[in-house]
Amino acid sequence: MNFKLNSKYKPTGDQPQAIEQLAKGVIDNLTAQTLLGVTGSGKTFTIANLIERVNKPTLILSHNKTLAAQLYSEFKAFFPENSVQYFVSYYDYYQPEAYIPSVDKYIEKDLMINEEIDRLRLATTSALLSGRRDVIVVSSVSCLYGIGNPEDIHSNVIDVKVGQKIARNAFLRRLTEALYSRNEVELSRGTFRVKGDTVDIRLAYEEIVVRVVFWGDEIESIQTLHPIDGVSLGSHDVFNIYPANIFVTTRERQATALADMEIDLGKCVDLFNKEGKPLEAKRLYERTSYDIEMIREVGHCPGIENYSRYFDRREPGARPFCLLDYFPNDFLTVIDESHVTLPQIRAMAGGDLSRKCTLVDYGFRLPSAIDNRPLRFEEFESLTPQVVYVSATPADYELARSEGVVVEQIIRPTGLLDPVITVRPTLNQIDDLIMEIDRRRELHERVLVTTLTKRMAEELNDYLGKLDIKAAYIHSDVDTMDRIKILDDLRAGVYDVLIGVNLLREGLDLPEVSLVAILDADKEGFLRSHRSLTQTVGRAARNLNGTVIMYADKITDSMQLTIDETNRRRSIQLAYNEANGITPTAIVKARNALIGFESDEAGVETAAAKTRQVLPYAQEYQPAQANIAADPVLPYMSDKDLEAHIEKQRAAMRKAAKNMEFIEAARLRDEILKLEEMLAKSAES
Prior knowledge:
single chain; alpha/beta; Rossmann fold; 5 domains; six-stranded mixed sheet; 41% helix
């Protein structure tokens, strides 16, 4: 099936030529291209059109799961008839295994898995293995971490069809080999139940139940049912059941892996004894022997991923299998905010290696643990045949790898211009800033202020508070959910000023902000580099009256580059607006879309219809979704998925109450109430 873009808008401004150039590059098999698009120019809409044009399976890589969730929501809306998947880390909480030799402290691995994200991850691998070509996967860097061998998963797919000759018990064995478990009490995700000749399977990757009815040793019928009310969703002649876990293997491979583990264990224990380390030898022998016995008896053990090299039949040092191995050879990779995402990919393997080496050196793990790692940067590059880097400020690496193939997208569909930049001396900069803040307060507009240190941000916040200016600060010490609430309060008018250090850059979409003030702009460094300044300036590009004030006693090279580039873009935008008779229009954005990129389509009717109007003085203001479950997927679920999630949480609440875990039951009850409120608001809109 081909990709089919669903949008009532057409590409405008620079979008048509950007789509044309990028599509030509992909068709001509260029390995790398860069889309240099200014803030608010509709880069997501351009990429959606590119995907439809080239018709290739696509991986969209983002640098954190919240922004990935926003992109997932947008691409789901753009391609409702195609397979759009979401693949991020499924841990709500994760404490990696570690050992600190200086204090002789071992930290055991601790984690909490998000069931909904686990289902979405399985849905991703199932879609890719199904052979479909119309698949878009929106992912964080989690896609570079090890998962199961795609060949093993494919060999454990259960193909069933009406009239197939197979004994019921043989079918049940196939289900258990695919890591489904039998549960006659509660048919939860990844389980099955048996009643006579009827087998019900609750798929691990999709919110449906598959009912297979036998007549003797023959499959008589196959039905899909709604998991909550059991209503029939349809009948099938053929159906594929994919494994319930990404990590699955065969019995033969398990036996071989255990034999290899025992051989390596003997070698490592002998080596420790020769080196005069009996404690490490004893520790490694006891821990690994226990793991081997657990795998032999129940097929699993805590930390089994550290033995993945044996199950995958990989040589020492070889890279693990990851999500990229599930794509066909000709897939397209789009790296969003590449100037942030690529350095993140480069850094991952190094930090992981240091921790694992310590565990191996002190006898907590076999050396195979080192090979359970994320991809190295060069390995990632070798697996991505065609890449489109997307950024308002691409780094030198992207520009060099693109070999000059840089597609600019400067014109915004809304006609908004880049902000005007002025430079003012640092003498009396705070007094000048307060005067500018007062002007914006009279117009009920907002102000962003960036400082160099967290202490400066807090002291400025205290000073403004003494002057009865409603201000708040955000920096790395402020919790993520608190940041979201502060940003929402800023938009609502609870605060007039937001002060930050390094967080007022990528991913902030605040149309109410008309002034960005950069204190000490002439202090060269990471926070005042050309790219950082350009990203910060972009925060004022969503408002008709967008202005940037740089407080500095000299104009540095970074400042000059930023000013020159902004003025160049502004002149191009002005000329385009005059030539086409365009009057800039303000962005209207729903308050609940707190973090992420704006809807990149030209036009705002849909967003405007959903926006809850808030008076400039924040009267009758209620915080919108500030402490809904921290799961970034929830705000983007469909009503049907949300209803299913509520039922799942309700079942968990009853179970907790039955086990007399009343605090957990109360927490789940509160979450259900918030989710129901969220569902009601969605129905009203």
